[in-house]
Sequence to fold (246 residues):
Amino acid sequence: MPRLVVLAVLAASLCTVAACGGVKPQPSAPPAASADPGAFTGTVAETANASGYTYARLQADGRDDVWIAAPAFVTQKGESLTVTLEMPMANFESKTLGRTFPLVYFVTTVSRDGQIVAGSPDSAMPGPMTSRDSAPKAVTVAANAPPSGGLSIAEVWAQRNMLAGKEVTVRGTVVKVNNGILGKNWIHLQDGSGSATDGTNDLTLTTDAEVNAGDVVTVTGVLATNKDIGSGYKYDAIIEDARLVR
Fold:
């Protein structure tokens, strides 16, 4: 084969359409805006209400059924709801409903036809990431002596590793209340002991009892440490299922 023919064939094999004056490549389309990776849209297959929350089982093609719980709202079977799957709680027991959910997502907003029907865009669990960070700031309370057989809040913090899993009794002033979160009332208690700088002046507890900010209460409950409730919310010390001591 003549040398010129060989070179022509070689050049043709290396030539791209764009480089040889053919159709110019089109600029690639900009990537689509990423959707919320936790967003889930499903049809209500079952619903129930308890403790200020609405529970709903959502179904979607190609997906396992998903249970969600949100601040009480009105819904019915067959409706399409959109939620962001956050705050997963495994083996969550609802004493009011008398059932345990293998997995339920406590969501802060629920939308229907693009309209929010539960929560708000800036809804969130009470407090930032840790119990110390979520304590009320600049709160002044009158000193409360520990109850008979009980401990001061500062003592609970100092001895928390030894007290973990045991019942403790404390008395203090209620400085913050969030009712109906995850089926419980969340209370911050202070008794004048401890330091606001490191958060040892404030103790979080959960309870079924209803109290108001400013109440002085005595409570007993089991102390948990390094309690992780998911979605980055962790409590260095928390009294769970506390009961009021009358």
Notes: The longest strand covers residues 167-181. Confidence is low (pLDDT under 50) at residues 3-35, 121-133.
